[in-house]
Every structure is written in C-alpha cells, then in structure tokens.
Amino acid sequence: MKLKLALATVCVLGASAPAHAQDPHLARNLAATCANCHGTDGKSVGGMDSLAGESRDKLMQKLMAFKRSEKPASIMHQIAKGYTDEQLGLIADYFSTQQ
To answer: What is the 3-state secondary structure (H, E, C) of the chain?
Structure first.
C-alpha cells in the first residue's frame, strides 16, 4: 500500500513538472515583481524609469550591470542577483514588447 502511494506521488510530481516549465505567463509573472517601482507593465507614473518599450539589449545590459554590481543602485543589485540570466532575459523580453 505504501509503495503504491509513493509511486502515485512520484507520478503526480513528474507529470506536473513539464506543465510548470511551460508556463506561458512566466515572463509576465517575473516582470510583475518590477511593478512596485516601475509601474504596471513597466509603465512608470513618475519617479522611476519606464521599462515598457525599451530595447531588449538595453534592458539586459542594465540588468546584468546591476547583477554584477557595476551600475550604481540602491536595491537593484539584490533584486537582479535573485534571478538567473535566463529569467532576466524573459523579463527584458517582456518589457521590450510592451507599448
């Protein structure tokens, strides 16, 4: 009985992993963490730079500079270091396609 339960658990966990990896909203969800400072969908209402519509390359340069602590910042070093390079790329992709 315990073996069947263990096998069923492994099957359920294994089946859910690909679904999570293919989340069509991953980029949007990652970018949503930027909304507090840069506005919803990267459209700032003042005080901070808007990210919407910026080129992907420019956003990636800035994000990687923050991650490497090369660009002066108050909080962005810690935030950028919390993401993989791939996740930062998804965030840059998302904002570059916003109008």
So the answer is: CHHHHHHHHHHHHHHHHHHHHCCCCHHHHHHHHHHHHHCHHHCCCCCCCCCCCCCHHHHHHHHHHHHCCCCCCCCHHHHHHCCCHHHHHHHHHHHHCCC
Cβ contact 40:30 at 8 Å = no
Q: How far apart are CA 3 and CA 8, in angstroms?
A: 9
62 exposed, middle or buried (CB, 10 Å; 0-12, 13-18, 19+)? Answer: buried
Digitized pLDDT (tens) for each residue of the chain, 99 residues in all: 554 544 444 444 454 445 456 899 999 999 999 999 999 999 999 889 999 999 999 999 999 999 999 999 999 999 999 999 999 999 999 999 999
